[in-house]
Design a protein that fits this description.
By secondary structure, this protein is mostly beta strands. The protein is about 0% helix and about 40% strand. The two termini are about 25 Å apart. The mean pLDDT is about 95.
Length: about 425
């Protein structure tokens, strides 16, 4: 997927409910699964990272484990290993605890290859309980990683430290990166653009860096959120000449927030009470005009001029409790940015479908968004028309709450019109029959 962290893809996803469901047991969730390009024999594998392991999954006649090795993380940090990437050299990077590690095929061009470790790097002088969170790759091939305490670091891909800056506040999500070297990180205090200059990370406004205030909840934890402040990784949106970054805020009635990524347009008037950089600001109600609260812990799904938010309002339940209980609040809402009038509007909402805890995706090829949903006791893959919000079809996965519960994992567009997702105890591959 792109460093823009949009969640969408140009590749086709599922086109009908006629699908085969394969499950493989991993023991813990892999939040992201990364399919490889094809091997010489035409086959593929997918890399995954749980809090304690790195795995290679064969995407063949069935989903199965090719190899698994310890990742360097552990159960003390359940967010560890959530964000990963595969570079053009075939190195799979992940984080575990306070380390970045690279893995690859010990036997190149062999889909059955065992995993080899290609290098590791440890965060220098970490604070107590500090761990690494988000991970991204600049367009000139530099790794950028952010820690839970707001340290943003640039590393070469041979895992040598190049540069470091400190942001105020805590970080519980990943980052986005644009083609101009803008690195976007949201902390519990502010939304930041840090500039990668080609040599170093910079917070100097003269290089294009900025920070902008948002309604961050004043340091109060919100049920359904895994950290303070925004529950989303920043997502980048480009519509015509408008270049925006999208997050959700931490007001009791959560708002979608769009901010200008570059210079604020001359004469721009931000919404009342908002930072001057804010381009759009609207409450997320999931179609309920009387809603007083709303919550999401997922990245905002972006495709073209649209942004979709899903509902993670678990009432007073916190932490992993609502996942174990299989709680599935309904609510999906799409917003649209109009580049002619520079306005944000709610386009459609669905009040009776649930995407309870997974990161949704969308396919430009099929015109559908996808999420792991729940109907009654049955976990499903839901396909929804991106333009209208009308349900297109769904694929039943099963009633096993541990096997099919998405558990904050990304619903990803896989190869050949398939969907890949992590679950509480493993991974699921849903592919056309």
């Amino acid at each position: 997927s792109s460093p823009h962290s949009q969640g969408s893809s140009v590749r086709p996803g599922l086109a009908s409910a006629s699908a085969r469901v394969d499950f493989v047991e991993l023991g813990l969730p892999s939040i992201t699964l990364v399919p490889t390009p094809t091997y010489p024999d035409g086959s593929r594998v997918a890399w995954g990272s749980t809090p304690s392991e790195v795995v290679r999954l064969k995407l063949d006649d069935r989903l199965e484990i090719a190899d698994r090795v310890p990742s360097g993380g552990g159960l003390g940090d359940l967010v560890g290993g959530a964000y990963t990437l595969l570079d053009s050299a075939g190195t799979f990077f992940t984080v575990g605890g306070s380390e970045v590690r690279g893995f690859g095929d010990a036997e190149p061009d062999d889909p059955d290859s065992p995993i080899e470790e290609r290098g590791s790097w440890a965060l220098p002088d970490p604070d107590e309980d500090e761990s690494l969170r988000g991970l991204g790759l600049t367009y000139d091939g530099v790794l950028v990683v952010v820690s839970s305490t707001g340290r943003l670091l640039a590393l070469s891909r041979d895992l040598t430290l190049l540069s470091e800056v400190q942001l105020d506040g805590e970080v519980s999500n990943s980052i986005a990166i644009d083609e101009q070297g803008g690195v976007y990180a949201v902390t519990s205090e502010a939304m930041h653009r840090v500039q990668w200059t080609g040599d170093a990370l910079s917070v100097d406004p003269a290089t294009g860096a900025w920070e902008a205030a948002y309604a961050n909840g004043d340091g109060q934890p919100v049920p359904g959120r895994l950290g303070l402040g925004s529950g989303s990784t920043p997502s980048l949106m480009t519509v015509g000449d408008d270049r925006l970054v999208v997050i959700t805020d931490a007001q009791p009635l959560m708002h979608l927030v769009l901010l200008w990524r570059d210079d604020i347009p001359d004469g721009w008037s931000a919404p009342a009470g908002a930072d001057a950089r804010v381009a759009g600001l609207l409450p997320v109600t999931f179609g309920d005009p009387s809603a007083a609260t709303s919550v999401s812990e997922q990245s905002v799904l972006v495709l073209g001029d649209g942004a979709v938010v899903v509902n993670n309002d678990y009432g007073d339940m916190t932490g992993i409790t609502p996942v174990l209980a299989g709680v599935a609040p309904p609510g999906i809402e799409r917003f649209t940015w109009d580049p002619e009038s520079d306005t944000l509007a709610s386009t459609w909402s669905v009040g009776d479908l649930s995407c309870p805890n997974g990161i949704p995706s969308a396919s430009a090829a099929t015109g559908l968004m996808y999420c792991v949903g729940k109907r009654g006791e049955t976990w499903t893959v839901e396909a929804i028309d991106w333009r209208t919000g009308e349900p297109a079809f769904h694929v039943p996965l099963g009633d096993d709450n541990l096997r099919y519960n998405s558990t904050y994992a990304a619903t990803e567009i896989g190869p050949d019109g398939s969907i890949l997702t992590g679950t509480f105890t493993g991974a699921v591959w849903i592919r056309p029959e």
